[in-house]
Amino acid sequence: MIISPSLVICSSSRPLLSRCPFSHHAKSRILNIVSHGRTAGDARAQAQARFTTSARLTKFKILFCGSDEFSVASLKAVHDARDLWDSIDVVVPPEREIGRGGKHNKTLERYTPALRQYALSNDLPSHTVPPEGIKSWTPPGPFTTPSPSHILLTASFGHIIPLRILKLFPEDHRLNVHPSLLPRWRGAAPVQWTIASGDEFTGVSVQRLVKYSRGVDAGDIVGSIKDIRVPNDATYTTFLTHLAEMGGSVLVDVLRKLRDGNATFTPQDAALITHAPKITHEAARIKWDEQSADDIDRLHRGINHQVHLWTPLLSTTTHFITLRPLPHSEYPTDLDGEIGTAHLIKDGKSRRLFVACAKGTWLEVLGVQMAGKKPLKIKDWWNGLPKDVRDQGWVKMG
Fold first, then answer.
1. How far is CA 35 from CA 45, 210, 266, in A?
2. Which tens digit of pLDDT belongs to each residue from 164-222?
3. 256-291, pLDDT tens digit by residue?
4. For residues 60 and 97, is the Cβ–Cβ distance under 8 A?
5. Are 220 and 208 contacting, i.e. CB atoms less than 8 angstroms apart?
6. Among 33, 75, 253, 313, which is 20 to 30 Å from 359 by CA?
7. What is d(CA 19, CA 142) in angstroms, rounded to the nearest whole number?
8. CB 119 within 8 A of CB 35
9. In angstroms, rounded to a whole number, what is the distance separating the alpha carbons of residues 303 and 199?
């Protein structure tokens, strides 16, 4: 008998056997819910419950939703696993103009989802969410009619899937690839906050998609790769490539387990939840009294691809394009270390800008951009400051 694993796994709020379309004898053969340490009234044991599928499926009809290079890696891995699927339909957000550089130095670029390009290059049917959003969107056929072989996969999609669409798929066939080790860094910007917070290790998770009221990225975990080291010089763009490859690998592994009927879903530990909110202009503001040079460097490496770090300066805003934390051996001991003070140092024909940061640390700024202006090297930027500032050789930031 070939059935979907999701037909035998359900939430505890609805009787499983009452939803099963098979005979009593068949039910006894396919039901295999494993719960370790689960007892009535024991909330902690409930949280540690694991649910294992026990039936076997042939191939999936896949609806894959994504947008960027991270999602391309997941789709490519699935696309290459030809034994897993009968068909793949791809869904992407619409092309649009996006702003980069922050509130005061915003430039508009036309954004075409990388996933669309992959779909077109590989002759996969491609569908676009309308500009007004996914709430008014209807999935393509055959996904408007529920089927045990249908599966919804998302990776870096950028839309919250509404419940009416989730309900078109079996409960265990609604999966999302997330670039962190959940429940750490739930939310829109997990890689950015992983780097900015100085995490030494991270991971990639595949989770069940659940209704929004339960929380973002709150679904049970069905697969993960742990202990991925975060390089000391990691940036969002360089590190995302590695995580994307890991995401594709774990997703294919999960799909094979679902097909074979031995996938295990584990609830997230609520005590370990941290949030990764969307990167905003305010998040990029340097807090000189709180952030060390290393803190500033990590934030820069995590979010600079979206918005440049900035600080108020002389009634305007200065954005930092390139910077580096000074090693202790290069600390300028002859300068005033008042936090937030930037000193211009003459080094032959070149100019260097050192800023005193929290915790007794120092930052070197290598390139800046004033609000509404083009990026400048330090010498050119300093020459454009008022004469009294240039003459005193320092300026207060923040």
1. 9, 20, 10
2. 999 999 999 999 999 999 999 999 999 999 999 999 999 999 999 999 999 999 999 99
3. 999 999 999 999 999 999 999 999 999 999 999 999
4. no
5. yes
6. 313
7. 23
8. no
9. 15
Burial class (CB within 10 angstroms; exposed 0-12, middle 13-18, buried 19+) of 249 = middle
Domains (range + CATH), the chain:
5-272 (3.40.50.170), 282-396 (3.10.25.10)
Residue with tokens 């954005």: 319
Assess contact for 143 and 99: CB atoms under 8 A.
no
Q: What is the DSSP letter of 186?
A: B
Residue count of the chain, please give it. Answer: 398
> Tokens at residue 85, please?
């699927």
- Which residue is it, tokens 């991925």? 228
Q: How far is CA 215 from CA 173, 264, 277, in A?
A: 19, 21, 13
Separation of first and last alpha carbons in the chain: 69
- Only one residue has tokens 């996904």, namely 143
Query: Is-contact 303 284, C-beta < 8 A?
Result: yes
Residue with tokens 């394009």: 321
Give the three-class secondary structure for 276: coil
Integer Cα distance of 53 and 128 in angstroms: 33
